[in-house]
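S1.2 Input.
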Amino acid sequence: MKKIKITKAKRVKIYKWSAIVLGIAAVLALILPLPLYAESPGEALGLQNFIKVEKKKPKIDGEFMITAVYLQQVNGIGAIIGWLDPKVDIETSYQVNGDGTSEDNYKINQVYMATALNEAKAVAYKAAGITFVRKFNGIYVMAIQQDSNFKKYLHVGDTITKIDGKSLESTVAIQKYIRSRKIGHALSVTYKHNGKTKTVTAKTVKIQGTKKTPGIGIALTDNVTMKSDTKVSANMGDIGGPSGGLMFSLEIYDALSPVNLANGRKIAGTGTIDKDGNVGEIGGIDKKVIVAGQEGAKIFFAPYVKPTKAILKYEDNHMTNYQSAKQAAKKYAPNMKIVPVKNFKEAVKYLETHQ
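S1.3 Output.
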């Protein structure tokens, strides 16, 4: 076999072009967006700027603050900077968006925000002794499984209002009606998409993770609103997610009632809220502690769960929200008190007894 001889000049040329190609690839890797996101400390904002209670002037003696994180897609340079910053976490696109897109994630977080606000209203109305009605509007579409026959019609953020022309009074009733049919049964679904009402008919499928449970193939949550003669409105802009629930309920209750919970203090915190006032854990609490401390908060409410081995196994960094908040405060906000709470009543009691 005849050997191919490469001259020195050719080798130099090959090395040169290889270096150029590798250099271009390296530059592109540094400047083009990657399927990675940086989660960093965001903002701590006074809720009196966002939540309005009819016929009530905002109290200015202290404030309740909602805390948020920044989440931004990064390029190679941003990823390197994030990895070097102890206050930043780098997450994959799947960790942030799951099987959906960033647009889907945005819509989901807007749904969570709307739900948190409505549940906070219910808790505050009840605590203030104000009559209200909980209105069930349907179910939000939060995700759609790949083999759903409704996938090309329904979108994340849509609200399903009727099944087979029937307006059902709860999510449980809707699920019970659908599951009374067999897999492959045709169902008529009426839903709202971008403010327009539409109806589509398609067949049920087997729900993922079950043996033979029929469904339309969506993840869902309640779409509810609270109706009262005392109106509460809120406009949170692009801020999304469920984690403001506890602080929403405290701000609304403080405005509705004659009590002065804030009493000149800057009070921050985080945690989901349900209609019974129970507080649930959230993500990114260490970063929320940092921004709360930077904005001068003296009290920070953190969701509390007992740190058993079973629970710690699934917690971020194997620490509960309260443990993570305590650790972050020790390093970044040593003058801020981290207060563990399991429910709305505990937060109110702390503020009333610690003036």
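S1.4 Remarks. Residues 102-128 form the longest helix (27 residues).
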